[in-house]
Amino acid sequence: MVYQEQVMRVAQVVGGYSLGGADLLRRAMGKKNVEEMKRQRAVFIKGAGERGVKESVATEIFDLMEKFAGYGLISRTPQLILMSHTRRHISRFITQRHSLLPTCAW
Questions:
Q1: What's the longest Cα–Cα distance across the chain?
Q2: Looking at residue 10, what DSSP letter applies?
Q3: Would you state the pLDDT for residue 30?
Q4: Shortest CA distance to 7 belongs to which of 38, 40, 39?
Q5: What is the reported pTM?
Q6: Lowest mean pLDDT: which of 33-37, 46-50, 85-89, 99-103?
Q7: Which contacts (CB < 8 Å, 24+ apart) does range 19-27 have?
Q8: Across residues 47-55, what is the average pLDDT?
Q9: In the chain, count of helices (H) and strands (E)?
């Protein structure tokens, strides 16, 4: 994931967030608000479960999004290098475990 909008899209497609809810998640990640992130994790996992995603898989996807929050605000060049690997990993992960890739706008 390179852009915050990609985090929001994953939250919508996998976690069942509305656009407004995905924006709240994005803001919590951007501010590194630990308490809000705990709440958002529960919302994401519940929403993913309602869409047939196993809890362990939803947790791993959220962990990857949370990892993005840790370096999403660094300078662009290192961010692009680091993110290109993460994007490939998420795409492969979703393809192998869920067949959700056709519904995601990567």
A1: 37
A2: H
A3: 81
A4: 40
A5: 0.66
A6: 99-103
A7: none
A8: 94
A9: 5, 0
Q: How far apart are CA 13 and CA 104, in angstroms?
A: 7
Max mean pLDDT among 21-30, 38-47, 57-66 falls in 38-47
Residue 88 structure tokens: 């490939």
Examine the pLDDT at 50 and tell me if it is beyond 70. yes
Q: DSSP character for 4?
A: H
User: How many Cα atoms occupy the beta-carbon half-sphere of 11 within 13 Å?
Assistant: 27
Task: Enter the tokens of residue 5.
Answer: 């909008």
Output the 3-class SS for 11-52: HHHCCCCCHHHHHHHHHHHHHCCHHHHHHHHHHHHHHHHHCC
Contact 1, 68 (CB under 8 A): yes
Beta-carbon neighbour count of residue 75 at 10 Å?
A: 7
